[in-house]
Amino acid sequence: MAQEGKPALGWAARDASGLLSPYSFSRRVQKEDDVTIKVLFCGICHTDLHVAKNEWGNAMYPTVPGHEIVGVVTGVGSGVRSFKAGETVGVGSFVGSCRACESCGKGYENYCPALLLTCNGVDYDGATTQGGFADVLVVNQDYVLRVPEGLPPAGAAPLLCAGVTVYSPMVQYGLDAPGMRLGVVGLGGLGHMAVKFGKAFG
């Protein structure tokens, strides 16, 4: 007999209107390398709007958006050693990859052909992945990040998409050293983060 997953309540888009309404569903069964998280905060990214309104033509309704997730660990599988109940953690745009291809080997899981998106993807059990506009999340430990003490959880959530989107290339191209010049076009969700990182880098 198959085990039942963790009951969850989220806000789902059911059609291209993009309107969200309450949606009861089940998260996958927690595996030995999974972390179960009580969601406290989830930022909203423009990608969430694209998915909810099917603007990219690939929405799998009903779909629960959200990939800037911060919460508290409520359970861990037997193989999890890096996290424990009560810790504040975050989850970003994806929750799985093959970990065997060249891209994964170089730390570029976002280019993996088997990339598993946090929402609107197909999970390993065949179910549609549902995002963080929900009360609970079950995710592989390798895609969970610890939120440092002293960093407000509500402020940490946008760092998991908008933040990393600008931080990563700044570091990759050496713009994380004092005295470097940085040009930022626009001061929206990404631009204002780039300015903040630039100031912090000196």
Structure report:
The protein is globular, with a radius of gyration of 17 Å. Strand 1 and strand 2 form a beta hairpin. The model has no long low-confidence stretch (mean pLDDT 94). With 202 residues, it is an alpha+beta fold. It folds into two domains: 143 residues, Quinone Oxidoreductase, Chain A, domain 1 (Alpha-Beta Complex), CATH 3.90.180; 42 residues, no CATH class. It contains five helices and nine strands. It starts with 6 loop residues before the first strand and ends with a helix. The protein is 18% helix and 23% strand. The strands form three sheets. The protein has a five-stranded antiparallel β-sheet. It is an enzyme of class 1 (oxidoreductase).
Strand-residue proportion: 15-25%
What is the arithmetic mean of pLDDT? 94
CATH 2nd-level architecture of the largest domain: Alpha-Beta Complex
Largest sheet features:
5 strands, antiparallel
How many individual helices?
A: 5
Topology-level CATH name of the largest domain: Quinone Oxidoreductase, Chain A, domain 1
Total E-strand runs: 9
Measured between the Cα atoms of the first and last residue, the distance is 58 Å
- The low-pLDDT segments are none
Q: What is the total number of structural domains?
A: 2
Overall morphology: globular
Question: How big is the Rg?
Answer: 17 Å
Q: What is the spatial order of strands in the main beta sheet?
A: 8-3-4-5-9
Keywords: Lignin biosynthesis, Metal-binding, NADP, Oxidoreductase, Zinc
EC number: 1.1.1.195
InterPro entries: ADH-like_N (IPR013154), ADH_Zn_CS (IPR002328), CAD-like (IPR047109), GroES-like_sf (IPR011032)
GO biological process, one term: lignin biosynthetic process
